[in-house]
């Protein structure tokens, strides 16, 4: 009697297991798409800054431009190291992690484009997975702002804030650029939405003459 009744239960367990594997596969594909998208965008920014430096450089300034290019490559290496999910870490120091991320983003992406970066990061801990997803989303938002918010670079500023209150983490990227004319679109938008769902977060945005501000709101217990 028990053997006959166990088969439906086995089918349910097997179905749940396969559904879990399918969800993990989709989640991994999302991260891979973001990694490819991020590499494409950052290399585009790097290429533009290199062309600008070497076009302006005279014969005596070539060595300076080469040194600057080398520093940017090193900064890109640090950035991608931070964006790599670490399986051997269970908890991450939020303040140290995101200060390092902001420093790498500033040196690799923003400073070459003539954009200042400010950061205000509160202390706390998050899982490695949460930090990784938030870092991917913040990097996407910062890179998007660097590419589109500043047709002229005078006084360009991007501010990154990571704060914790009301049992949630609030991660904000704000710029003083021209202000977005509509919602994020394209591959970057779909990846952001997918990453937000993967950590039970939501995106809030506002734009005006003072610039654009996008906040990721993630439950502390996600």
Automatic annotation (TrEMBL):
Record-listed E.C. numbers: 2.7.13.3
Signal transduction histidine kinase subgroup 2 dimerisation and phosphoacceptor domain location: 34-108
Catalyses which reaction(s): ATP + protein L-histidine = ADP + protein N-phospho-L-histidine
Enzyme class: transferase
Name of the protein: histidine kinase
Pfam family, one: HisKA_2
UniProt GO MF annotations: ATP binding; protein histidine kinase activity
Domain Histidine kinase/HSP90-like ATPase: 118-189
Keywords in alphabetical order: ATP-binding, Kinase, Nucleotide-binding, Phosphoprotein, Transferase
Top-level taxonomic group: Bacteria
